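Help! Submission page says 'invalid entity' but I think these are all valid:
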Amino acid sequence: MSHVDRQCNLPQEIVQAISSVVGNGPLALHEPRFHGNEWIYLKECLDSTFVSSVGKFVDRFEDELAAFTGAKRAVAVVNGTAALHVSLLLAGVEVGDEVLLPALTFIATANAVAYCQATPHFVDSEMNSLGMDAHALRVYLSTMAEMRGGHCVNRSTGRVIRAMVPMHTFGHPVDIEALLAVAHDFRLQLIEDAAESLGSTVGGRHTGTFGLMGTLSFNGNKTITTGGGGAILTNDVELGKRAKHITTTAKLPHRWNFVHDEVGYNYRLPNLNAALGCAQLEQLPGFLIDKRRLFVAYQSSFVNVDGVRLVAEPAGCHSNYWLQTLLLDESFAGQRDAILTATNDAGLMTRPVWALMPQLSMYKNTPKAPLPVAESLERRLINIPSSSGLLPIAP
Amino acid sequence: MSHVDRQCNLPQEIVQAISSVVGNGPLALHEPRFHGNEWIYLKECLDSTFVSSVGKFVDRFEDELAAFTGAKRAVAVVNGTAALHVSLLLAGVEVGDEVLLPALTFIATANAVAYCQATPHFVDSEMNSLGMDAHALRVYLSTMAEMRGGHCVNRSTGRVIRAMVPMHTFGHPVDIEALLAVAHDFRLQLIEDAAESLGSTVGGRHTGTFGLMGTLSFNGNKTITTGGGGAILTNDVELGKRAKHITTTAKLPHRWNFVHDEVGYNYRLPNLNAALGCAQLEQLPGFLIDKRRLFVAYQSSFVNVDGVRLVAEPAGCHSNYWLQTLLLDESFAGQRDAILTATNDAGLMTRPVWALMPQLSMYKNTPKAPLPVAESLERRLINIPSSSGLLPIAP
């Protein structure tokens, strides 16, 4: 078949490759599954009348998240954005600082920096993990930053570069050890945006537990959901206490007095949502098995489709395969929108990756590194239906 | 009985007056009631799998809130604090501005101003409504502020005073018409903190619909609850659209593209919580009747207790009687903590009002008016058990 013919057929080939695994649509990109104790726990919550800011499910959800991830402390919050915001504040990000972020990320990562009145500084990704490129970052910082009084300073802007926030894209772990080394050498705090990577590990250790803090999301499209919700992970017990305090209006414990000792946030996860989370956590190991099975099935299905490959977990890592992802060959990148149209028209929900952050009007004048890989990935990535319930139950 | 004897007996008299209405404890200050369609709607939500950021209950809750309050638009958000934050931003509060607030309020009112990098400027309350004193405010502004270029400017600090945020304390409507006149004369935006006053009206019009925007809370301790939640009310349809946009990450609608056109917030109310809210709203008229019955019963019970009176709705207003409130005579203010101890020891949960905002470490250096009434109220107010289900069903 000629290259031109392949160009014309690729959208339909992809529709067929997806359908051969998951059947015909309509299929969402990522749907939650509620086949466990969701009902029972929600009812328990209503019966107790503790649906709101205190309740046993919040404590239990936090303890079970800590146990599952191996973090010393987990603090449940209202969503992943709030988790990022508070983590940046506790990491010492100040008004006027810069924070290094991947250009290829969801908007929450950048907005959380803006909430601190700090400036996002966007850097490139690498092909293997889709996440921040540690080597490129080191080279970049070596040319544009310098150490002044123990701080990393952007020579062009004169601002302190306080922290970096790598993100584990679609659940695939970033090269966290290499990034930690860069953070160490340039005196940067490292916060992991693990919103997409619950269940993903690096060398057996859970994502979100390598940096000073890590953040999770339990939005409706995530591997497990609390309706809306998130969490902060940390191995620093004092920092965990601070996170709990500042996310619960910074109120001092007292039998009746209302005294708050700093500007806090109303970021606590309601007990109702935590109840859902407890039921979902019980099913998480099964969800992860099912998502890996889906990857294997898609991989078989796509092996004979030229021009596209399925993104696999980096070596040494275990991905939760949150969103299954196609990477088009560069020569087929021009077909992206035709593929999105064909698949969505067929009822198979797909989507491209996010617009790169520096393309958005509010972030277009912020500092950025050269972004050749992120720009290439943006043209070539497509997420395909990824719900954990798409395959028949394993025999 | 001598004055000294009365001082000794007052705590026990108050315990007896409360118990004679609501029986013996343990009784919470304010408990939610889930005797309607809560379970059905939550189940519907789970069955649909739409528990998160979109779903029919969010739209329905918003429409029904607008219908109930008479606002042209209601936007459901994650809590009352978020509603205040976004309302202040949309009212044009800028970094470095001042915002007038009652010193006697919950911490959220002040924190929302701090989130805008603006400065709270605390003013006094009046005895009748417990809310901002319009007359005192007018006199105060006349002495310390001046108009410059169409803006109200604090002469001492040189900062623009951009807005005022009166709060309807414990559900009792503030003198909103008088405050609107002050806002008009000094070119201030007026945002109503109606977190506590769902169901409260002034001249038949719902609180939260007089100012540019009004904010509601559905925390677990409020008249109705969504677990955690809040809403923005407005009669400006364009402002309502802006509020919806900015509270849902400012994403532009598109079949698959992720483009956001400003720094937005992840402040949407999950569909799961909105489902609870829809069931609660159906019962709100009944809750309001029961809360008023409780006020009448307490009033009879306290009529013969010297040294204390029950706070009643201001003339021309209809209060939701969210929290039933005792006001001690000034000469009995020294008994406040003994009363709190006796009632809580008896299992009847009571609490004092919040510490005045300028007493808190983070707000002690912000500008403030003389606060003689707020200081007096702080010594003398006690909230007593107020749940709508405390009395037997009316015959």
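Support: the input was valid. A stray whitespace character was the problem, and the output above is from the cleaned input. Chain B has a mean pLDDT of 96.
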